[in-house]
Amino acid sequence: MHLPLASQIINLLAAILLLLSFAMLTQRRILSLINLFAMQGLALTLSTLVVAYSTGQHHLYYSAALTFALKVLILPWVLHRLIRKLNVKWDVETLINIPATMLVGIVLVILAFNVALPISQLAGTITKSTLGIALACVLLAFLTMITRSKAVPQVIGFLAMENGLFFAATSATYGMPMVVEFGIALDVLVGMVILGVFFFQIRERFDSLDISHLEKLKEE
Amino acid sequence: MNWQLYLVLGTPLLGGALLALWGHKNWAAGLNIAMSIATFVAAAALTAKVISNGPIITANEQFFVDSLNVFLVALTAFVSMTTALFSRPYMRVEHAHGKLSDNRLRLFHSMYQLFVFTMLLVLLTNNLGILWVALEAATLTTVLLVSLYRTPASLEAAWKYFILCGVGIAQALFGTILLYSASEKVLGSGSGALLWTHLASVAGSLEPTVMSLAFVFLLVGYGTKVGLVPLHNWLPDAHAEGPTPVSAVLSGLLLNVALYALLRCKVLVDGALQAPFASQLMMGFGLLSVVVAAFFLSRQKDIKRMFAYSSVEHMGLITFAFGMGGPIANFAGLLHMTVHSLTKSAIFFAVGHAAQKAGTQIMDDIRGLMKVSPTVGWGLMLGSVAILGLPPFGVFASEFLILTTAMRLQPWATPFLLIALGVAFAAVFSKVQPMVFGETTAKRLPHPPALVPVFAHLSIVLALGFYIPPYLVDWYREAARLIG
Fold this sequence. Notes:
The complex is a heterodimer.
Chain A: H1 5-26, H2 30-55, H3 59-85, H4 98-122, H5 131-147, H6 151-172, H7 178-206
Chain B: H1 3-22, H2 28-53, E1 56-58, E2 63-65, H3 67-96, H4 102-124, H5 128-146, H6 152-187, H7 196-201, H8 208-226, H9 234-241, H10 244-273, H11 277-297, H12 303-324, H13 326-358, H14 369-372, H15 374-387, H16 394-409, H17 414-436, H18 452-466, H19 470-483
Antiparallel strand pairs in B: 1-2
Helix pairs in contact in B: 1-2, 1-4, 2-3, 2-4, 3-4, 3-10, 3-13, 3-19, 4-5, 4-10, 5-6, 5-10, 6-8, 6-9, 8-10, 8-11, 9-12, 10-12, 10-13, 11-12, 11-17, 12-13, 13-15, 13-16, 13-18, 13-19, 15-17, 15-18, 16-18
């Protein structure tokens, strides 16, 4: 099947995005995890730019700029600062059973492709084939959150989920209306600030950022 | 000019900004109350306008007010006003007990006003994208309120609340994206394609496959905030560990607002599908919530946790009613939203003071409230009797309507509902009775408790049980018609 160049580039970037999601799933160093997150943001920016150029949707240039500023510059910078201040920069997490997690991840990807199939067929965008990948990224990020026991990696998983959602918005449609995108970006930023405050509260109280301390509230 | 609408949104926003600066002063609680009263007056003016002149669409169609949301705006403004009245003495006692510093008091006041603002924005916006943004912002403003005491348990509750609601609401964003992709084909791209009024007018021509998938995601997302089983895990923790005024507004208002978001989406999906897909999902989740929550009630030890589960049960009942649909069930659902919101916040007010007097939230250690403070005791007793659906309170009327409609439309569900309501009754009554009567262990408080809000709420609920004024009936009918 012959695809125009733009569409091929987008598919390539989508594949890179998926690969990065898998890398994040198994990355044990917090520092590398943040770098992977920033790379994901970069791939997202590039794909948005290609879509904007090839379809002439001008508002996508703005959302690409917003993505670049927020997900490649500000959030990684905030995260770097946080882990330096919290002194967890060189933390290595012990992840149980990486191969099993990978297998679950693959199942999730297959599931995502199946769910997205009917919508992809209906979508008229040049990016329609990537919707499955976008949903897969969301689910993989979710899996990343579940398998982590430390607070910072959980939050990076949460942010990666937002990346997947943003990618879904550009692949199912050509991005959400600008006012909504600004709102979402604002929420993410405010959420990050609140979480930063929260990290310090947790550490002050428990002397660690291990979420396993936070498992006391249970049904008796 | 729709100055009423701008005042409704502007007052709490201004209040949030002012209290961020001066929220620790002595008069801050008074300012909090004044701002809440101003919001309520503006909301009342807006309601009067909508009732007499019909729906309002304004500001480039970004805001939309009809009978359905103006009813919730009035309720939200009212309960947030009474909660502000309650929180002044309550927070003074907490401050006197040394549980809160000045800075945290400032955080509380400021975030309280911003929380009210985000809820009103959810209700008034016409843009489904902004609705999502505002509902997420409502989570963000309350996270730091839940962890206000900075105890290990409250930090855990706030973390759970943030992560679960964050993940949940991310699903709702995916649903909104799918919704947009369906509507863009009909309405063209741009922000017009997310405006609810536009969507509702073309609902019939939206792509059914995409819409049904979108609804699944929206139900999971907003359902997490409504507290539907099995997505309810954050709710009891957040209610039990946060300060009581926060529990009251979470239970009485936020759950309603999240359900409102779901209802708006349901109308669109029903229009697109011409099949009861959304209704069946809502009935299923609703019924499951009622039954599971009822059985969890009897196992609780913490008084606020118990009433949090009672909220899950009642939200399930309301979701079930809207799932059945039709004029009577929708009417009953709206009435139940009103009475549950009023009763549950009244209960939390009474519970808050009861826990302060006893110095604990563990029910086994709270005894004989009637002896030390008859008003708190009666408030808790009457509130519990009301929420359990005994006549003559208004909850009885709405539960009776829901049950009789269920017998007619969905007879299979009636035994489950009846058993659940019976179990809930036995559980709550057997726990509240010894707390109110018998020998006491409670002590006096450094500040007199605020009990006007408790009895104001309960008397409205009682009045609604005897007599619903005709204009209110018309209003509910109109709103019920809008939900379809």
